[in-house]
Amino acid sequence: MIRAIAEKHNVSPAQVLLHWAIECGTSVLCKTVHPTRMAENLSSVDALTFDEDDKLKIAALDKHRRYITGDFWCTEGSPYTLENLWDQ
Q1: Residue 4: partners with Cβ closer than 8 Å, 6 or more residues away
Q2: Neighbouring residues of 2: CB distance < 8 A, sequence distance ≥ 6
Q3: What is the pLDDT of residue 34?
Q4: pLDDT tens digit sequence for 41-75
Q5: What's the mean pLDDT in 77-81?
Q6: How far from each other are the two terminal CA atoms of the chain, in whole angstroms?
Q7: Whole-angstrom distance, CA of residue 86 vs CA of residue 57
């Protein structure tokens, strides 16, 4: 879905997600040491404009998907569990 929107606007999937987060008023912290990616990240603000179809597709994505679950905090003897790490 994100890749299709990126191809439609001739930008990277990362730019789509960065632009979406900024449009939603979310603070975005990008981590890269590559100058080309830095420039790409910065250009995501002005590089595209979502139409209504794009906004509906992105809004319909599963918001409960975590790429980093936090299970590395849940070691034996730790006070953390996956249930109390996240508020969802």
Answers
A1: 57
A2: 13, 16, 17, 58, 61
A3: 92
A4: 888 877 788 899 998 998 888 777 666 778 888 88
A5: 86
A6: 24
A7: 25
Q: What type of residue is 33? A: V
C-alpha 55: how far from chain center: 14
Cα separation, 73 vs 33, in Å, equals 27
Residue type, 72: F
Q: What are the start-end ranges of the E strands in 1-88?
A: none
Task: Decide: 5 and 47 in contact? Cβ < 8 Å.
Answer: no
- Work out whether the CA dihedral 28, 54, 61, 72 comes out positive or negative: negative
Alpha-carbon torsion, ordered 38, 10, 27, 25, to 10 deg: 150
User: For tokens 């890749």, what's the residue?
Assistant: 3
Tokens describing residue 28: 């975005």
Would you say residue 85 has pLDDT above 90?
no
Q: Which helix (H) or strand (E) holds 74?
A: none
